[in-house]
Amino acid sequence: MKSTVEQLAKIGIFATLNQTELERLQEHTVIRTYRQGEVVMYEGDRIPEKLYTLLSGSLRVAKTAAAGKETILRTLFQGDIFAAPALLGNGIAPATVTAETDVEVLTTQREVLLAAIRENPEIALRILAVFNQRLQQLHETVHGLVSERAIVRLARFIHYFAVEQGTKIADNSVCLEKRFPYYQIARSIGITYEECVRLFKKLKPFVSYSRGGKINVLDWEKLEALASGEEID
Fold first, then answer.
1. What does the pLDDT look like over 161-176, one tens digit per residue?
2. What is the distance between the alpha carbons of residues 175 and 92, in angstroms, rounded to a whole number?
């Protein structure tokens, strides 16, 4: 199934395109649906030369070590582009991408995208901005794994998703819209499942965790302070 012009217009990197340019691009797009738990691509797969964009839902990007341990690198949401090596590298998937929910993935042929970039170089700048932001996040993650306490990394994880994915007010506290099982948090911040459970107990005065991955922030100021590396009594 092809995308609509309206769907393309909502993708950040195409924000500067006019109607004619969007219509030209739209003719060379494909939308594929993946069910929750389905793998979009496996680490090491040869992937076609296309731009991959998430239209709806969320995707988990993870790498598996030789010993079998999985590390979650990031979670992708609506509008995110991914699988950079398909455009700029060796065409080998650097990680496994799995649907966390039912998702729609839009692909655009590389040759068509390059033609659009020649007409509107702003597209390339926007793509580079996305990859630069991810590189900065990677640097911060590596720095955190080397030098930050695990409880600070946990606080930053909670704070990040509260800001990026939104919250709602429930039971006189701030509740994260997205739910996270212990194993996903643990694999995202480089700790064990057991340590994750233990750290949430330490956060209990200002963060609560309940069955189903529901996270409530009871004291936003203390969470922000801990996420910035401050000592909390």
1. 888 888 887 767 789 9
2. 38
User: CA dist 123 to 12, 90, 130, 207, Å?
Assistant: 9, 21, 11, 41
Neighbouring CB atoms inside 10 A of 109's CB total 17
Q: For residues 144 and 153, is the Cβ–Cβ distance under 8 A?
A: yes
Q: Which burial class, exposed, middle or buried, applies to 228 when counting CB atoms under 10 A from its CB (0-12, 13-18, 19+)?
A: exposed
pLDDT in tens, 142-159: 666 656 789 999 999 999
Rounded CA separation 161/168 (Å): 12
Q: What is the DSSP string of 1-53?
A: -PPPHHHHHTSGGGTT--HHHHHHHHTTEEEEEE-TT-EEE-TT-B--SEEEE
> What is the per-residue burial (b if ≥16 Cβ within 10 Å, else e) of 52-89?
bbbbbbbbbbbeeeeeeeebbbbbbbeebbbbeebbee
Cα(156)–Cα(201) distance, integer angstroms: 16
Residue type, 12: G
First-to-last alpha carbon distance for the chain, in angstroms, is: 55
Angle at alpha carbon of residue 159, lines to 102 and 136, rounded to 5°: 85
